[in-house]
Design goal:
With 393 residues, this protein is α+β, with helices and mostly antiparallel strands. The protein folds into three domains: 7-103, Butyryl-Coa Dehydrogenase, subunit A, domain 1 (Orthogonal Bundle), CATH 1.10.540.10; 122-230, Butyryl-CoA Dehydrogenase, subunit A, domain 2 (Beta Barrel); 248-388, Butyryl-CoA Dehydrogenase, subunit A, domain 3, CATH 1.20.140. It has helices at residues 7-23, 26-32, 38-52, 70-82, 90-103, 106-117, 232-247, 250-266, 278-306, 314-337, 358-368, 378-388, and strands at 123-126, 142-146, 149-157, 167-173, 184-190, 196-202, 208-221, 225-226, 268-269, 272-273. The strands form three sheets. It has a four-stranded mixed sheet. Strands 2-3-7-6 form a four-stranded antiparallel sheet, with no helix packed on it. A hairpin with a 5-residue loop joins strand 6 and strand 7 (208-221). Helix 4 packs parallel to helix 8. The longest helix has 29 residues, at 278-306. The chain starts with 6 loop residues before the first helix and ends in a 5-residue tail after the last helix.
Length: 393
């Protein structure tokens, strides 16, 4: 695989850098940092990307994609992370959008896809349930037929940003016959429908991004069914492969590691820079080596997608190693902050002098413990790899 950039790629990189420098301004960055303006910031940034024609790099051109090569996509993500810019909220563009344009009917494509691209609808994901997490096929939320509608009853949990959502894409049980995977359907539900209740879950980092969503006799038109009834498991597996690829977060972890190195350079430990400590150096080097290997794996997956394929079992490998690397860097940051990691917090300021990044490092570490669980736990991903790659049962 040729890893050098062509002149055209270098020119593209300059264009991306220039766009980020002008479009992602300080005012928008500040909005991202506040709970009260976070949703508005997400939508505004995505609208700026849409105006530039860059909102959906991985979509086919006929549905609004960029037509970029895998190299250009890699450059875009690398420059985005280097500039400290957040990823596009994945639930619309990265998850349900590809399911709709792949398996949806023309009416669904015509209505939903433009609204996703323009950020007119905020989507959330209804997969996990109180009793069905990694064993997702055991889900119990029912959708019973009633004329032209389904009546949905049940609950979803760990639903990110459901408090903001206009729509939720759900896996629901429409049959109990045969294998448990065979009776699942993929349904789009308007969050404003009567009978839906969103219960907040405050996570260990004291933030509200997670929720439980209850459905009590929620009436959903059958025209909101994606594809065929009882075929939802097939569509869900396609979505999960894309989700797990994105969870790897290689570009963002590279930036986080660079920031850790710079902070360690300034930190004095035993009269010298922490960065000069041999044991600390080894830990950083080990992470760098694994990140480089992971980056090349990600490039191979991007090349497969660019050639018209879809992420396979490699997405599970990316998810495993990517989330482990995220946690490794979060642990490094906690070590650099040392005793001050829990002292200074921007939400609860105090008089004790500590590191500016201490509170943020602590919150990232606490929330980051979930990275190896959400999107399908890493133990489950190892089973996927064993079955798909090694042929084991």
């Amino acid at each position: 695989m040729d890893t050098s950039f062509s002149n055209a790629d270098l020119s593209f990189r300059d264009d991306v850098k220039a766009f980020f420098a002008s479009a992602y301004d300080l005012k928008l960055q500040k909005q991202f940092e506040s709970f009260s303006t976070y949703k508005d910031a997400v939508i505004e940034w995505q609208k700026r990307l849409y105006s530039q024609g860059w909102i959906a790099p991985n979509w086919p051109v006929e549905y609004g994609g960029t037509g970029w090569s895998s190299t250009q996509k890699f450059i875009f993500e690398s420059e985005r992370a280097s500039a400290g810019i957040r990823e596009v909220m994945p639930f619309g563009v990265g998850m349900v959008g590809p399911v709709i344009y792949t398996f949806g009917n023309e009416k669904q494509k015509e209505y939903f896809l433009p609204r996703i691209l323009k950020s007119q609808d905020w989507w959330c994901q209804g997969y996990s349930e109180p009793g069905s997490g990694s064993d997702l096929a055991s889900l119990k939320t029912k959708a019973e037929s009633d004329g032209d509608n389904y009546i949905v009853n049940g609950a979803k949990i760990w639903t990110s940003f459901a408090q903001y959502a206009d729509w939720i894409f759900c896996l629901v049980r429409t049959s109990t016959d045969g294998k448990k995977q065979a009776g699942i359907s993929f349904l789009l539900i308007d969050m404003r429908t009567e009978g839906i209740k969103v219960n907040p879950i405050i996570s260990i980092d004291n933030h509200h991004s997670l929720n439980e969503v209850e459905f009590v006799n929620v009436r959903v038109p059958k025209e909101n069914l994606i594809g065929e009834e009882n075929k939802g498991w097939t569509y869900a597996k396609s979505l999960l492969a894309h989700e797990r690829t994105g969870i790897a977060g290689v570009a963002d972890t590279k930036r986080a590691l660079f920031n850790a190195q710079e902070l360690a350079r300034k930190e004095v430990n035993g009269g010298k820079s922490l960065l000069k400590d041999p044991l600390f150096q080894k830990r950083l080097s080990d992470i760098e080596i694994e990140l480089l290997a992971l980056e090349f794996t990600e490039l191979r997956v991007l090349a497969t997608v660019a050639a018209g394929g879809a992420p396979g079992a490699e997405s599970s490998l990316l998810k495993i190693k990517g989330t482990e690397m995220q946690q490794a860097v979060q642990e490094i940051m906690m070590e650099i902050a040392a005793h001050y990691q829990g002292v200074l917090d921007t939400e609860y300021p105090c008089e004790v002098v500590g590191h500016e990044f201490g509170g943020a490092a602590r919150r990232a570490y606490l929330y980051g413990r979930a990275a190896t669980i959400y999107g399908g736990s890493n133990e489950i991903q190892k089973n996927v790899i064993a079955k798909a790659v090694l042929g084991l049962e």
